[in-house]
Design a protein that fits this description.
heterodimer, A: about 270 residues, mainly alpha, MetI-like fold, 11 helices, globular, B: about 375 residues, alpha+beta, Rossmann fold, OB fold (Dihydrolipoamide Acetyltransferase, E2P), 2 domains, six-stranded mixed sheet, five-stranded antiparallel sheet
Chain lengths: ~270, ~375
């Protein structure tokens, strides 16, 4: 014990932590750095500062199309998976029934399934069903991968939701719908918004499934993948990547704040023995 | 304790529970319970967990329905009437304060639907907050309140609806001992002030004894006894009730004579005793069980004598501050008697092994069913 403590206090822990964080984030830091570099090749030393690559972005019609496609897919996938997630999370947190944990496990499974395999299987199913590949099939694929995230966010918001709150509302004369509107919804709203944001972010960044299931319409990650073939387009890709990175980071931060607020709200009622 | 004056209580019944059974498959949470609760009464359902008391309360509130039997409130049958249209309001065990609303909004929650005219809603909220001594805290969030304050909000939120019956589900169980005792007094005072029928569910016998006009003691889905606190404590009809309400010495006896109202029995330690026959008395062959509370046995000091006494030897002594608990072996009795004695005469100094004599009143020895 003492040896371990001495080892850690000798600055080793700090060094380890620093290396760990550096390994995680250094590659990500290069992205914004090279995106404002004047040279077309990502190489040190830096040659000069420019926003040229960012200014070029809105002047690329293919990129705007891809962004618009991503927005449509992201919003649809977020709404659909959150709706399904609400139903599933409510049933998992509220009711006890045989097979409950198995069902929970099955819903969470896409999180650990190899994405390539899921994508190929979905492609086969879509083709068997006679669906032509389009943004719609991408949405279906994204719903599958988003639901586990949606479930995680929503169950943490619904868990500890004291059932007696709804009973208290009924006891005070409120109808079932009124109770939903005045008690249930306001209490779980932060979790629902959080789930929407998380799902949107996941869909926005998702590549493999979109790659397999899209027809001729590209989403942003697919557009980026296509651009990588041209060395001259790399700085533009870096600029776009930086924007996506910032957007994802902001969305996830807001989502996490909301999720915590929802969890705190419902769990407050549980603190009666505190 | 002297009987409290019953200002609002009448003989009219408020709640009629007739042959109510609630089964879950083969398990009966409530088994053929019948009960009348009077208007303006502070009534307690007392029993260990799983005895069916909460099930009964929730059926009065409308959160659960009887498998068979009927419940009526204020003369109106409750069958088919959902919780939101019953003339009852409930204080939940968890308080169920809406965490996204402040104190005022919580209390006004049920009034919103009534669409009261011109400041009436605000006036009633103020009045309810004043009743539970929360004036001035209306703008606080539920998260900023202490346990005791949350409990008061739950009370105000129910009282503001002016229900015919206020249902309380273990409302004090989450509070610490001191606050709990203070709230017992306040709840009782509040009930007397508003004159509403209170039905309290509790597993704490002292709480039930201190607050209620009448108590129903329940075990295993059945109502064992319904009576005033004094009657329940002094004249329990079964051994189980006696045990649940506090310490009791049980003495085996042989029935010598039996008529409609009384029993004459022979006991080994206490000799021949004549005692009232309880209503629910069931003859168990030729035997009977008598019980006497530990505080009804008094230590006889020096040469003092009493008309009725038993002699024995102190085998254990436990000190509890204001009282001392003595375990006294009596020749002929299979179990030693437990005796609680106040410490003002030095019961805390009686050495273990001392031979002592105990005085008792034969009236305090009550016969009960096993």
């Amino acid at each position: 014990m003492i040896a371990v403590r001495r080892f850690l206090s000798g600055g080793w822990l700090a060094t380890y932590a620093f290396l760990y964080v550096a390994f995680l984030y250094l590659p990500v830091i290069f992205l914004p750095i090279f995106s404002v570099n004047t040279a077309a090749t990502p190489k040190f030393p830096l040659t000069g500062f420019t926003l040229h690559w960012y200014e070029d972005l809105p002047r690329t019609p293919a990129l705007l199309d891809a962004a618009w496609n991503s927005l449509i897919v992201g919003v649809s996938a977020a709404v659909l998976s959150t709706l399904l997630g609400i139903l599933a999370a409510r049933s998992i947190t509220r009711y006890r029934y045989p097979g409950r944990s198995t069902i929970h496990g099955l819903i969470m499974a896409p999180l650990v399934l190899p994405e390539v395999i899921v994508a190929i299987s979905m492609l086969l199913v879509m083709l068997q069903l006679g669906l032509s590949l389009s943004l719609f099939t991408v949405v279906l694929g994204h719903v599958l991968v988003c639901i586990p995230y949606s479930m995680t966010v929503l169950t943490s918001g619904f868990e500890g939701f004291d059932r007696s709150l709804e009973e208290a509302s009924a006891d005070l004369g409120e109808s079932a719908f009124g109770t939903f509107r005045r008690v249930t919804l306001p209490m779980v709203a932060p979790a629902i918004i959080s789930s929407l944001l998380v799902c949107f972010t996941i869909s926005l960044d998702e590549f493999i499934i979109a790659f397999f299931l899209t027809g001729t319409e590209a989403t942003l990650p697919i557009y980026i993948w296509g651009q990588l073939r041209f060395a001259a387009k790399l700085p533009g890709v870096l600029a776009l990547g930086t924007l996506l990175l910032v957007a994802s980071f902001l969305l996830m931060t807001v989502a996490e704040i909301l999720r915590r607020r929802a969890a705190r709200r419902t769990q407050n009622e549980g603190s009666l023995y505190a | 304790m002297p009987e409290q004056p019953q200002i609002f209580q009448s003989d009219r019944s408020m709640i009629e529970i007739k042959n109510v059974t609630r089964s879950y498959g083969a398990f009966k949470a409530l088994d053929d319970a019948s009960l009348t609760i009077r208007e303006g009464e502070f009534f307690s359902l007392l029993g260990p967990s799983g005895c069916g008391k909460t099930t009964l309360l929730r059926m009065i509130a409308g959160f659960d329905n009887p498998t068979s039997g009927s419940i009526s409130v204020g003369g109106q049958p409750m069958e088919g009437i959902p919780a939101n249209r019953r003339p009852t309001n409930m204080v939940f065990q968890s308080y169920a304060i809406f965490p996204h609303l402040n104190v005022e909004q919580n209390v006004a929650y049920g009034l919103k639907r009534l669409k009261l005219q011109g400041g009436e809603e605000k006036r009633r909220v103020e009045e309810a907050l004043a009743q539970v001594s929360l004036t001035g805290l209306g703008k606080r969030l539920a998260t900023e309140l202490s346990g005791g304050q949350r409990q008061r909000v739950a009370l105000a939120r129910a009282l503001v609806m002016r229900p015919k019956v206020l249902l309380l589900d273990e409302p004090l169980s989450a509070l610490d001992k001191k606050l709990r005792e203070q709230m017992q007094v306040e709840l009782r005072r509040l009930q007397q002030a508003v004159g509403i029928t209170f039905v309290l569910v509790t597993h704490d016998q002292y709480e039930a004894l201190a607050m209620s006009d009448r108590i129903a003691v329940m075990f295993g889905g059945r109502i064992a006894q319904v009576a005033s606190p004094k009657e329940i404590y002094q004249r329990p009809v079964t051994r189980q009730v006696a045990d649940f309400l506090g310490g009791m010495n049980f003495v085996k006896a042989e029935i010598v004579e039996e008529d409609g109202a009384s029993l004459v029995v022979d006991t080994l330690g206490f000799g021949r005793i004549k005692t009232d026959k309880p209503k629910a008395f069931v003859r168990n062959g030729g035997g009977a069980t008598l019980g006497i509370r530990p505080e009804r046995l008094r230590v006889l000091w020096d040469n003092a004598t009493a008309k009725f006494e038993v002699a024995g030897k102190v085998v254990e002594r436990h000190y509890f501050g204001e009282i001392t608990h003595l375990i006294v072996e009596i020749p002929g009795l299979e179990k030693p008697l437990s005796v609680t004695e106040t410490n003002d005469f030095g019961a805390d100094d009686i050495p273990v092994g001392t031979s002592i004599r105990l005085a008792y009143d034969p009236e305090a020895l009550v016969a009960m069913a096993d």
